[in-house]
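Customer ticket, subject: "Can you confirm the structure for 4-hydroxy-3-methylbut-2-en-1-yl diphosphate synthase (flavodoxin)?"

Message body: Hello, I'm evaluating your service for our small team and ran a test protein. I'd like someone to confirm that this is what the system normally returns, since I don't have a reference to compare against.
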Amino acid sequence: MTEDLSSRPRPAEAGARRPSTGVEIDRVKVGGGAPVVVQSMTNTDTEDPVSTAKQVAELARAGSELVRITVNTPAAAAAVPRIRERLDMMGVSVPLIGDFHYNGHQLLEGEPACAEALAKYRINPGNVGFGKKKDAQFASIIEMAIRYGKPVRIGANWGSLDQSMVAALMDENSQRANPWDAGHVAREALIRSALDSAARAEDLGLPRDRIILSCKVSGVQELIAVYRDLARRGDYALHLGLTEAGMGSKGITASSAALAVLLQEGIGDTIRISLTPEPGQSRTGEVIVAQELLQTMGLRAFTPLVTACPGCGRTTSEFFQELAKTVQGHVRERMPEWRVKYDGVENLTLAVMGCVVNGPGESKHANIGISLPGNGEAPSAPVFIDGEKSLTLRGDNIADEFVAILDNYVETHYATRQD
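Agent reply: Thanks for trying us out. I re-ran your input and got the following:
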């Protein structure tokens, strides 16, 4: 008898999304009820349009929906239109975001083709200018955004706070009956920097639906506290990210711990996982982590994910680990083609299990699952399709046969797109 899959308990869902003003970045919408957008940043020298365009394309093909590039010199600004042209020739339409610090006003004014080619500008209110020049230089960038119809991310950062604002808040705090601690003052300075700059941008004529805010710090608890407060104090679209998260498991763990709490509370409209890549490692790792975070939380679906058991004394063979790796690698390799060809394939669920304890049960909960033999079990591997045992694999070709079953399932169960 076929199991009624609709009777299974449904997973708990994330909380309601915080209402925010939607911002259009070319064809990508951030906020306003749109799905949380994944973005990333290159680490190439922007003055080299060939290597930069290549990395942007890699990030976009991995699933980055927005890509930010550093624009720090006149030569880098001059290269931006050439990068855009190369991407268009490659069929890569991902919007490019220009990351400006210190001299953004000069670069945008000096290279109008750069100002036009970028889909969004990112500016840091802590270093857009200093002293008497700050307001004028900030206004110059905002006026360029207005002229070219571009949105702006006003991105305050813990490491580059406006020290005059910090000093003013410290003086203000000293007059309180119950003064805040230093951390609270610093968080308030960060939030105030972003909100005051956004208000200034609106006064200059930039509409609210072209403003995104971020307040980045490098500590998990500080980031959660900052964004909870920021979210309460306005309806601007919010960019989430833990700055300088770190390398490898530390960076992944810290970013996931902070962003998962906020996303569960409905806070955040676009995210970036700021990982320090291992030497020689692809920059696309940060895109995969961002996608998997959103997908495992049930907020979006990007690619079929494989449920696999961790292994124990019942599973001394490494075969189930190798099969799980093979299946996940196969899915990621085929997904660019599948995404274009098949509607809904990103929701496919897979399970590769190592023994009889949880193997059959977990396999039944997936669209396609396999329960491999553990120590002392019969040398056979039952395969379950949509909750029902379909066949049993044996012998030395289990991996190839299971991948073939997966490919056939995709071809026969998902409608071909009619774009």
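A couple of notes from the result: The first strand starts at residue 23 and ends at 25. Residues 1-11 have pLDDT under 50 and may be disordered. Feel free to reply with more questions.
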